[in-house]
Specification:
By secondary structure, the protein is mainly α. The protein has 9 helices and 3 strands. The chain has a single domain, classed as Orthogonal Bundle (hpI Integrase, Chain A).
């Protein structure tokens, strides 16, 4: 059985991510917040839908995520501006995202900047986290992976990026 491979169809490129971020403010507040939370936490579709208003941790501008598919629960910090928007939106609501996974996927198919699955936001988060921290164990924690082997695919991505950069620089020097 071959190992899972991370390919460009499974994550958003920086340009695609920028396109999505420009599009999100045009959505309803609920939908915009949902997709931003997924992009900023690496939550799976249902982990995002299961967020309760009590899962917001003001002292650390973070969100508590209940792991699914055998993954660990975790607390993930989000940008303060997003946390404040989400916190304000949650006032008077137990569940900020009261829709089904099918509805979330339907909305994604309507707004996505490219024809990639909603799960691509999780992979994009993982890649961005690895780029920022350069520490695969932090990516493991952030994604809730129990086994580091599940997280290693992001190191393959990082190596491929380094190889492309090295080859480009080599060719530029010729």
């Amino acid at each position: 059985m071959s190992r899972y491979q991370l390919n460009p169809q499974k994550y958003l490129t920086p340009n695609e991510e920028a396109d999505l971020r420009r599009l999100l403010p045009k959505l309803s507040e609920r939908d915009s917040l949902y997709f931003e939370v997924l992009l900023e936490t690496g939550a799976r579709l249902n982990e995002g839908l299961n967020i309760l208003s009590t899962d917001l941790i003001s002292e650390r501008c973070s969100v508590f995520l209940r792991g699914l598919k055998g993954s660990n629960d975790r607390e993930v910090a989000i940008p303060p501006a997003l946390f404040n928007r989400l916190n304000r939106y949650c006032i008077g609501r137990d569940r900020p995202f009261p829709f089904s996974d099918a509805n979330a996927d339907r909305i994604w198919r309507l707004i996505r900047p490219v024809k990639k699955k909603l799960h691509s936001l999780r992979h994009t988060f993982a890649i961005n986290t690895l780029k920022r921290t350069r520490r695969v164990e932090l990516v493991q924690y952030a994604l809730g992976h129990r086994n580091i082997a599940n997280t290693m695919i992001y190191l393959d991505y990082e190596r491929a990026e380094e190889f492309r950069a090295a080859m480009f620089n080599f060719k530029q020097a010729l």
